[in-house]
Inverse folding.
């Protein structure tokens, strides 16, 4: 399909702001919370990350689709986000290893998007007004109708979404003869996280999100991992209760992103919805235990309440975001449990944060 044959499309925000552009992917309509990712690469990893379930992504880098898609770069078994907003969308790709165009990939996965948007202006609007719901359509070009529909989209606050993206059945990852066994609670896990475990002589059993502690414990794991995922952590009550039981048994536990927030909630530390969240590959984080800083990959719209941690007798902050001082890591005093808000399996540093997997492995061997 030639670029100049694209149909018109509309993007309407919850506050009534209207953007006109050209259709990307499947002709249709999509809805969700709009947010932006500042990463210069890795768009396929973003689109298949279950943490983006129910969200429309604004890619701020100028060219999207120019290196095509490759199957091995999937972070899950399917596309998880709701829709795309970008500046320039490419119908062709230049990477020798590419296995197809992003346009074909979107049509195959029923993804609706819009291009030729001034993403710089849009991001400034979101940063000013805050995250909000939005709708993209290339089949309905009546802005008033779309605005009426966008107002019916539920807020991300209070939404439990992990059960919608979690595996329906338990499965294994790694070598069954590995020296360590880790039970993984799948709240929306990325494949690259599992790869970081299996490459370190760990055999994983990945359990559905609502699995009880008792069922996971029957497998006899050396420790537990609580994964990333979408939605409001406070609404993920079943996972909070599971983590409480893991802590009561004083078993090694490591959490990433949503898993980090769940660990906080399990210890009486509330979480809150951020103004517009952190999503990108260049967030500076300071490790308060070592004094060293890391360049991190982040994707979250909720955060742990820093003031509540200060007054906690059981939880202490281990990492902070150097841009806004939000909590990026915690550990539980007198327990073998810790977590981080960012994604150490990603590599913007490129390997600044891999030590966190090693620290968990050390806890498993004690």
């Amino acid at each position: 399909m030639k670029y100049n044959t694209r149909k018109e499309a509309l993007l309407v925000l919850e506050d009534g702001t209207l953007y006109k552009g050209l259709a990307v992917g499947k002709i249709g309509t999509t809805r969700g919370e709009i947010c932006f990712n500042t990463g210069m690469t890795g768009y396929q990893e973003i689109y298949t990350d279950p943490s983006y379930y129910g969200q429309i992504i604004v890619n701020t880098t100028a060219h999207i689709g120019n290196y095509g898609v490759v199957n091995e770069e999937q972070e899950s078994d399917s596309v998880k986000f709701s829709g795309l907003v970008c500046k320039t969308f490419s119908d062709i790709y230049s990477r020798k290893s590419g296995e197809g165009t992003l346009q074909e990939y979107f049509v195959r996965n029923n993804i609706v998007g819009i291009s030729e948007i001034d993403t710089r202006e849009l991001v400034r609007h979101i940063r000013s007004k805050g995250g909000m719901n939005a709708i993209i359509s290339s089949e309905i070009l009546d802005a008033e109708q779309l605005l009426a529909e966008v107002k019916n989209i539920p807020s991300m606050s209070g939404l439990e979404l992990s059960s919608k993206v979690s595996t329906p059945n338990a499965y294994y990852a790694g070598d069954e003869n590995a020296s360590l066994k880790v039970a993984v609670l799948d709240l929306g896990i990325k494949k690259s996280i599992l790869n970081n475990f299996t490459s370190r002589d760990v055999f994983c059993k990945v359990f559905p999100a609502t699995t009880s502690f008792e069922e996971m414990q029957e497998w006899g794991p050396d420790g537990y991992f609580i994964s990333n995922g979408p939605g409001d952590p406070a609404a993920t009550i079943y996972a909070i209760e599971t983590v409480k039981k893991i802590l009561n048994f004083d078993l090694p536990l490591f959490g990433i992103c949503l898993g980090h927030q769940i660990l906080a909630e399990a210890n009486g530390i509330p979480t809150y919805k951020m103004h517009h969240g952190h999503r990108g590959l260049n967030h500076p984080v300071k490790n308060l235990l070592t004094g060293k800083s890391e360049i991190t990959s982040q994707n979250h719209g909720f955060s742990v309440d820093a003031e509540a941690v200060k007054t906690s007798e059981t939880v202490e902050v281990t990492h902070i975001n150097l841009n806004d001082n939000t909590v990026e890591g915690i550990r539980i005093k007198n327990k073998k449990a810790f977590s981080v808000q960012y994604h150490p399996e990603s590599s913007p540093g490129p390997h600044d944060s891999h030590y966190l997997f090693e620290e968990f492995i050390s806890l498993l061997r004690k």
The chain has a mean pLDDT of 96. The CA atoms of residues 75 and 190 lie 5 Å apart.
